[in-house]
UniProtKB/TrEMBL annotation:
Main location: membrane
Cell membrane among keywords: yes
Signal sequence range: 1-22
UniProt family annotation: Belongs to the immunoglobulin superfamily.
Gene Ontology terms, MF aspect: cell adhesion molecule binding; myosin binding
Xref: CDD domains: FN3, Ig
Membrane-spanning parts: 1063-1087
GO BP terms: cell-cell adhesion; gene expression; glomerular basement membrane development; JNK cascade; myoblast fusion; podocyte development; positive regulation of actin filament polymerization; protein localization to synapse
Protein name: Nephrin
Localisation per UniProt entry: Cell membrane
Length: 1238
């Protein structure tokens, strides 16, 4: 209470201090009090309410209190954003408005007025604001929205729990729209104060009518306008109704046999729908059924064809589902009506005329029984007796007997037994037979060729037998000499007899007999019989010998023995003449006495005597029987069987050729009788296994088959044949051909220049052919492959290529090719080395090398020579042999084929000691040669030479020149030109500086010019020369063109000003400082580009013939040489004039002193020993970089074993010595570098 008091005081003080306090300007005379107050209110959560407070209290402060908590006089009510005061304060209206009420607003409210001068404080009666909270959800068990499956009649519990609400909601259950009465509910406290939940449980007993209906839980509350609902769908399982069989007719169970019966069985209702099955006499016959869910019907149709045996059958339809307590059944018993399935007449309907016939007619079982009656034609016959018996399937069997006298006129009439019944009024059942009355024929005769007429064997003869009348039809049977005539039964037998069928024409009957006459038909009697009647005729047949047989007195003979043969002709008509021959040779026979012959013909016989040899084996001795009347001859032969030992025939192959690794067949052509028992092959004394081996097999005919033959299989093979009569032998030579293999080939083959030599190639091959050797010269160019001036020779297995007066151009690689027709040809490489005396390269003018004589620089002298064999270099200075033991001198020697180089490096060059004339001498066993090299001081460059025009257009001219001696420093070139008739000169700097070709642009068409070329280095320029560097040029007109030379080197030219003048002075002025600071780097980069381009161009212009002659000749004894730590290496051999060796091409700066440490050379990537006087620039390749001994040397700028940046431009006269010098004016050159020529 104290807390409430202090809170009220604080709020009152805050209200008094707040601007806009509610003052009551009510007249003092008006009484203080409330004139409008609200009663207790009820509001639903989320709605708005207003508590009224109208007072008369002028000068007082009005505020509301909530459960004793003062809300303050501020109309906005701080701390309660949903609360505010509404109304006109001047009229005393202080209504409390609450927006979106929630449960926190459920409280007691008071309107309080503070005391004032007009009266004490006022407090209104308490107003209770009740907030109704509707339930938000209902939780149903089972889960709402689901489908529950229940069995009809069983009790189930359903629970429904409401969410928080105020007051507690009421819960009801609706089952299929009907209120469930059995409900128990419990109210529990909610999750917050003043909130409640209701849990209700209902006991539900579903019925079949509830299937598919909803079970609804409904929650109602005063806070809800409409109740909230959740539901589940009831899937109520209940048994189906009883099955109903829908019989298609009026009389249930009555059906006709043969009828297709369709019986529907229907079961209505049930969840799930019923399963149906049909039973026949208790046994299932159909378990197929269908359902119609919209009509809740299950249907099964039994389809059956009714048979007589189905009489009395009980058909049942059963229905049930998963909740059925038992099976429901509906049955029908079939009453089947069926006629007799057959009527049978017992007894024979064939009888002779004027005799009685007795027959019986019997029906199969029928229901009901049938009556029988007899008909003959259209005449009804009376039965003698009728009998009825019990039949199958509840039916009856009826039998009727009949006896009557038959006459000839009754023959062919139909005798019918008919069954009838009232149950089958629309059907007639009958059995009919034809009455056959027998009586004999009246006449019989034969029609054919007249008797006594002769027929040639093989002639077709027709005999026709005819008869009149008779029943049954006469059989007309043919006989030959009392034996019935029949056709051959087997198809493969010759069809010599064709017996026709009986044919009828009116009352006349006939049967034809067609004969292909043979010996057995001669004088044969042919008879036709019909019952007791018969007719006959006789044939005369002419035929050759039926059998010609040769008889021998021995089956096997040996050479020289005699054989007696007898030829017998068994029978012929007329007689024949017999004769003998042997393989076309006629033999004289001896006739034999006559003998009896079959077929009433004539027999004959004759004999012959023979003496046989081995050549007669297999020959045929033929006996011929000739009939002059028939003009026909019949022959028979006897094959002679002569036993003799093996004999090789003339076609026996004695030489067999095979290819190595291929197969070979050594054939056998032998004659023997009996056949050879064994074939034995022997090779080099060893017998080959008859069972075969890894590489051979003896075939059934004795031939020897070999595979994977080798040259070792070449030789004579001995064949031994044997039979019971003797033996024979033969030799067969196997000649194995194999591809050539080079055995000897002298590589390399050496010859002195101008001498003669044979390149000898010896092979192992079979066969050896006269023209099997061929030679090729290996080279990249077509002229390198020529064999002109060389002579090809061959003898046996050796081929030679003879070279007369050997030249350097003939040195190189050659290939010996041997081809004898057996692949693959043999190929062998041989190199021809032409030896010649040293030839030192002598460039003109005198070779010079420049170096500063300040005892800190170094110089390298290059001496190159060609010669084979290897060359030894010696050096002299001013004619005195050079002491290479001096640590200041280092020599490196390189050998690559026929090219040899010696590099002499002079360290710490002194002007007093080293400015001298050095002589390099090259020596080998064939001679020597030398060259002088002058070591001089650095100086201004010499003028360039050889200025010439290589291309010309109306506005440009392409120039090319040869640089002069550069004075030992980097040089550059400038072009000066003038147009004749126009005063003043124009200057253009050549870029890159070391280029030796340039295109001068900006010229005028059809104009004469004079062009000069100047060279300059750090010490000055070369000046203008009168010859070689001045060139007159006349540009063509615009209508003329001049193609550029293929050798033109494209360069760039600085841009010109508007008047065509060069802007070089302006560029120098603007970029002087930049050029001075970077000249060294730019110059080095451009220098390397110049070296690569010019080396390529010069190598193309070098005399190809002499160069290739020297390079191609490689010497086999190329090796590492040198005096001290030196090795030979491949070097570039590109040659050009003039020949000056640039110091910067070969010599880097000296390595640092020992105390400074050694860092190596980054450009070369080579580390050197750290002593002071080690070689300055190593030009040899690392170990393992050498190619084959006789590989052709293709020297040039791209040589792999000569660094391009060290020796690529052979046309540089004198190159830079001190590589670290920047481009500078001559006056800025240090004094110690200003050397002088000694």
């Amino acid at each position: 209470m104290a807390l409430k008091t202090s809170a009220r005081a604080a709020l009152l003080l805050m209200g008094l201090l707040t601007t806009g306090l509610a003052q009551l300007p009510i007249p003092v005379s008006a009484p203080r009090g409330f004139w409008a107050l609200s009663k207790n209110l009820t509001a639903v959560e989320g709605t708005s309410v207003e508590l009224q407070c109208g007072v008369r209290a002028p000068g007082s402060v009005v505020q509301w209190a909530k459960d004793g908590l003062l809300l303050g006089p501020d109309p906005r009510i701080p701390g309660f954003p949903r609360y505010r005061l509404e109304g006109d304060p001047t009229r005393g209206e202080f209504h409390l408005h609450i927006e979106a009420c929630d449960l926190s607003d459920d409280a007691e409210y008071e309107c309080q007025v503070s005391r004032s001068e007009t009266g004490p404080e006022l407090v209104s009666p308490r107003v209770i604001l009740s907030i109704l909270v509707p339930p938000k959800v209902l939780q149903l068990t089972p889960e709402a929205g689901s489908t529950v499956t229940w069995v009809a009649g069983q009790e189930y519990e359903v629970t429904c729990v409401s969410g928080d609400a105020k007051p507690a909601p009421d819960i009801t259950f609706l089952q299929s729209g009907q209120t469930v009465s059995d409900i128990s509910a419990t109210v529990n406290e909610g999750s917050q104060e003043k909130l409640f939940t209701t849990e209700a449980t209902a006991r539900v007993t579903p019925q079949s009518s509830d299937n598919g209906q909803l079970l609804v839980c409904e929650g109602s509350s005063p806070a809800l306008d409409t109740p909230i609902k959740v539901s589940v769908t009831m899937n109520v399982l209940f048994p189906p109704g009883p099955p109903v069989i829908e019989w298609p007719g009026l009389e249930e169970g009555h059906v006709r046999a043969g009828q297709s019966l369709e019986l529907p069985c229907v079961a209505r209702g049930g969840n799930p729908l019923a399963t149906l099955q049909w039973l026949k006499n208790g046994q299932p016959v159909s378990t197929a059924w269908g359902t119609e869910h919209t009509q809740a019907v299950a249907r099964s149709v039994l389809v059956m064809v009714v048979r007589p045996e189905d009489h009395g059958t009980r058909l049942s339809c059963e229905s049930q589902n998963s909740v059925s307590t038992g099976t429901q059944e509906r049955s029908i018993t079939l009453q089947v009506t069926f006629p007799p399935s057959a009527i049978t007449i017992l007894g024979s309907t064939s009888q002779s005329e004027n005799k009685n016939v007795t027959l019986s007619c019997v029906t199969k079982s029928s229901r009901p029984r049938v009556l029988l009656r007899w008909w003959l034609g259209w005449r009804q016959l009376l039965p003698t007796e009728e009998t009825v018996m019990d039949g199958l399937h509840g039916g009856h069997i009826t039998m009727s007997n009949l006896t009557f006298l038959v006459r000839r006129e009754d023959n062919g009439l139909t005798l019918t037994c008919e069954a009838f019944s009232e149950a089958f009024t629309k059907e007639t059942f009958k059995k009919s037979l034809t009455l056959n009355v027998k009586y004999p024929a009246q006449k019989l005769w034969i029609e054919g060729p007249p008797e006594g007429q002769s027929h040639r064997a093989g002639t077709r003869v027709r005999l026709m037998c005819l008869a009149i009348g008779g029943n049954p039809d006469p059989s007309l049977t043919w006989y030959k000499d009392s034996r019935p005539v029949t056709e051959p039964r087997l198809p493969q037998e010759p069809r010599r007899v064709q017996l026709g069928s009986l044919e009828k024409s009116g009352s006349t009957f006939s049967r034809e007999l067609v004969l292909v006459t043979g010996p057995s038909d001669n004088q044969a009697k042919f008879t036709c019989k019909a019952g007791q009647l018969s007719a006959s005729t006789r044939l005369v047949v002419q035929f050759p010998p039926t059998n010609l047989t040769i008889l021998a007195n021995a089956s096997a003979l040996r050479p020289g023995e005699a054989l007696n043969l007898t030829c017998v002709s068994i029978s012929s008509n007329p007689p024949v003449n017999l004769s003998w021959d042997k393989e076309g040779e006629r033999l004289e026979g001896v006739p034999a006495p006559p003998r009896s012959a079959p077929f009433k013909g004539s027999a004959a016989a004759t004999s012959v005597l023979l003496r046989v040899s081995s050549r007669d084996h297999g020959h045929r001795v033929t006996c011929s029987a000739h009939s002059a009347e028939l003009r026909e001859t019949v022959s028979s032969f006897y094959r002679l069987n002569v036993l003799y030992p093996p004999e090789f025939l003339g076609e026996q192959v004695l030489v067999v050729t095979a290819v190595e690794q291929g197969g070979a067949l050594l054939p056998v052509s032998v004659s023997a009788n009996p056949a050879p028992e064994a074939f034995n092959w022997t090779f080099r004394g060893y017998r080959l296994s008859p069972a075969g081996g890894p590489r051979h097999r003896i075939l059934s005919g004795g031939a020897l088959q070999l595979w994977n033959v080798t040259r070792a299989d070449d030789g004579l093979y001995q064949l031994h044949c044997q039979n019971s009569e003797g033996t024979a032998e033969a030799l067969v030579h196997l000649d194995v051909h194999y591809a050539p293999t080079i055995r000897t080939l002298q590589d390399p083959t050496e010859v002195n220049i101008g001498g003669s030599v044979d390149i000898v190639c010896t092979v192992d091959a079979n066969p050896i052919l006269p023209e099997m050797f061929n030679w090729e010269r290996l080279g990249e160019e077509e002229e390198d492959q020529s064999l002109d001036g060389m002579e090809k020779m061959s003898k046996g297995a050796t081929g030679r290529l003879r070279i007369h007066r050997a030249e350097l151009a003939q040195a190189g690689a050659y290939q010996c090719i041997a081809d004898n027709g057996v692949a693959p040809p043999a190929r062998g490489l041989v190199r021809l080395v032409v030896r010649f005396a040293p030839q030192v390269e002598h460039p003109t003018p005198l070779t010079k090398v420049a170096a500063a004589g300040d005892s800190t620089s170094s110089a390298t002298l290059h001496c190159r020579a060609r010669g084979v064999p290897n060359i030894v270099f010696t050096w002299t200075k001013n004619g005195v042999p050079l002491d290479l033991q001096d640590p200041r001198y280092t020599e490196h020697t390189y050998h690559q084929g026929g090219v040899h180089s010696s590099l002499l490096t002079i360290a710490n060059v002194s002007a007093a000691q080293d400015y001298a004339l050095f002589t390099c001498t090259a020596t080998n066993p064939l001679g020597s040669d030398h060259i002088n090299i002058q070591l001089v001081s650095i100086s201004r460059p010499d003028p360039p030479s050889g200025l010439k025009v290589v291309s010309l257009t109306p506005d440009a001219v392409g120039l090319e020149w040869k640089p002069g001696f550069d004075g030992g420093l980097p040089q550059r070139f400038r072009i000066r030109y003038e147009a004749l008739g126009t005063p003043g000169f124009h200057y253009v700097d050549v870029l890159p500086p070391q280029a030796t070709a340039f295109t001068l642009t900006g010229l005028q068409p059809s104009t004469r010019y004079r062009v000069w070329l100047l060279a300059s280095n750090a010490l000055g320029d070369s000046g203008l020369a009168d010859k070689g560097t001045q060139l007159p040029v006349t540009t063509p007109g615009l209508d003329q063109t001049s193609g550029e030379s293929d050798d033109q080197v494209p360069t760039e030219q600085p841009p010109a000003g508007p008047l065509g003048l060069p802007l070089l002075p302006v560029l120098f002025a603007v970029g002087g400082l930049l050029l001075l600071s970077n000249a060294s780097c730019v110059g080095g980069f451009l220098w390397q580009r110049r070296l690569k381009r010019l080396a390529k161009g010069v190598s193309e212009k070098t005399d190809a013939g002499s160069e290739e002659d020297r390079v191609r000749n490689e010497y086999a004894e190329s090796q590492w040489t040198g005096d001290r730590d030196t090795q030979s290496s491949r070097v570039s051999t590109t040659e050009a004039e003039p020949y000056y060796h640039s110091m910067s091409d070969f010599v880097p700066q000296l390595p640092p002193m020992p105390e400074e440490g050694f860092t190596g050379f980054g450009e070369e990537g080579v580390a050197f020993p750290g002593h002071l006087y080690d070689e300055v620039g190593r030009m040899f390749a690392p170990p393992g970089a050498w190619g084959p001994l006789y590989d052709e040397a293709r020297t040039g700028p791209s040589d792999l074993y000569w660094p391009e940046e060290k020796y690529e431009d052979p046309r540089g006269i004198y190159d830079q010595v001190a590589g670290d010098l920047d481009t500078m004016e001559p006056d800025s050159l240090p004094f110690e570098l200003r050397g002088h020529l000694v």
